[in-house]
């Protein structure tokens, strides 16, 4: 008998729970899909494509909906002799400049033997190469820029949508699909870019518990053997997912983790306790990974919000976070950031799922503002921030939290 044996008691197709699995139908996003389909209709009509901007939190179906509709669009476009459709999908994570995006796009259209380097060319020359490649390809070209908020300068976001109007393209018809997890990204764009890139906007709200149950059930029917999941498991995973900002990806990860724990325990069924164990394990890992990637200022902003949370002062506006953050920065011996840069760190914590945000609108008098709150287990957060607490000092609001965390850690080792 070998060291490894195939394990088939729990899962029928575990990969159906993975992020890259493409179901035949997307559930829980009917309204958004209908709107999105309408914005893509000009492609089939042989017209200039719309530029589309999608925004919403991580795990709410933006990229999945894009892949789903573009697969159908390409398939349907193939049935028309007068439509030549190309789709380029580019994830902008790690690409911070318009120059980097432009060189990557040039290389997407070139053979492997004719690639250009990401440095050493004047930007104007790279743009000229890009226009040439697009026109040489011809037809209708949809360029998807996922996580577009990683681009720090917006030159490419102006040049691409305006390329035909500015006389840079003659034959190609290009359309841009920008996808962002950052609600504030759109507001930070220059007006000329916003009017072009955000020609059509689609907001993807967080999934509610019912929608998450539909998604989980659809995947579970493929992933698990019949009768393996005890009643209530999907409902519990969906409830946790709704609490975690309506993130379908986290809900699916949780269901997979529960299945893995059941398999490791040689259990015949996946039960609620497996879900609870899985949630603790995943949340601890997400917090450690997220906090580990923050700058020192990011740690201080989080520490400020956490102490306000423990004092019962959340949800809290950024203007009320700032005095606490400033005080902690001074204790740490570093200069505090200006208010806008501090808000950037709040946005990063939201994208990591560590903080949650609520948009408030008090009309003409009060205006629109955002309120922040802690969305993950405070004990797990504080356990990952030991260095920051040591540097700044123990704030009185977290003393009991540290005692509970210390007791919990001791029990883990017993």
From TrEMBL:
Protein's UniProt keywords contain Cytoplasm: no
Molecular function terms from GO: ATP binding; ATP hydrolysis activity
Ranges where the AAA+ ATPase domain occurs: 48-203
Protein's UniProt keywords contain Calcium: no
CDD domains on file: AAA, Cdc6_C
Domain Cdc6 C-terminal intervals: 302-385
BP terms from Gene Ontology: cell division; DNA replication
Amino-acid positions noted as binding ATP in the UniProt annotation, renumbered to this chain: 60-64, 207, 219
Membrane-spanning intervals of the chain: none
UniProt record similarity statement: Belongs to the CDC6/cdc18 family.
Protein name in UniProt: ORC1-type DNA replication protein
């Amino acid at each position: 008998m070998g060291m490894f044996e195939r394990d088939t008691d729990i899962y029928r197709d575990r990969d159906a729970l993975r992020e890259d699995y493409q179901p035949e139908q997307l559930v829980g996003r009917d309204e958004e899909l209908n709107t999105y389909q309408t914005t893509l209709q000009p492609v089939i009509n042989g017209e200039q494509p719309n530029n589309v901007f999608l925004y919403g939190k991580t795990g709410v179906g933006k990229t999945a909906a894009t892949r789903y509709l573009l697969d159908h669009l390409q398939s349907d476009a193939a049935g028309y002799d007068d439509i030549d459709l190309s789709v380029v999908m580019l994830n902008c994570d790690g690409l911070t400049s318009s120059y980097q995006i432009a060189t990557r796009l040039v290389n997407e259209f070139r053979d492997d033997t004719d690639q250009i380097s990401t440095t050493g060319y004047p930007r104007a020359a790279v743009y000229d190469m890009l226009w040439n490649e697009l026109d040489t390809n011809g037809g209708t070209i949809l360029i998807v820029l996922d996580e577009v908020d990683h681009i720090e300068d917006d030159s490419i976001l102006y040049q691409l949508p305006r390329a035909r109007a500015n006389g840079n393209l003659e034959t190609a018809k290009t359309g841009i699909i920008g996808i962002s997890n950052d609600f504030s990204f759109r507001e930070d764009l220059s007006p000329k870019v916003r009017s072009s890139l955000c020609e059509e906007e689609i907001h993807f709200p967080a999934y509610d518990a019912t929608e998450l149950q539909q998604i989980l059930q659809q995947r579970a029917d493929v992933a698990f053997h019949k009768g393996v999941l005890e009643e209530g498991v999907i409902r519990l995973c969906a409830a946790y997912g709704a609490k975690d900002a309506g993130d379908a990806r986290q809900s699916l990860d949780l269901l997979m983790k529960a299945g893995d724990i059941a398999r490791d325990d040689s259990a015949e069924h996946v039960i609620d306790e497996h879900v609870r164990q899985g949630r603790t394990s995943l949340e601890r890992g997400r917090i450690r990974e997220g906090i580990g990637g923050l700058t020192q200022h990011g740690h201080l902003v989080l520490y400020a919000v956490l102490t306000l949370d423990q004092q019962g002062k959340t949800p809290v506006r950024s203007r009320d976070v700032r005095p606490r953050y400033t005080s902690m920065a001074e204790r740490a011996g570093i200069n505090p950031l200006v208010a806008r840069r501090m808000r950037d760190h709040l946005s990063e914590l939201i994208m990591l799922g560590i903080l949650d945000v609520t948009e408030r609108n008090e009309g003409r008098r009060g205006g629109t503002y955002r309120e922040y709150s802690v969305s993950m287990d405070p004990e797990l957060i504080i356990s990952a921030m030991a260095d920051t607490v040591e540097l700044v000092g123990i704030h009185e609001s977290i003393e009991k939290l540290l005692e509970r965390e210390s007791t919990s850690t001791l029990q883990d080792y017993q």
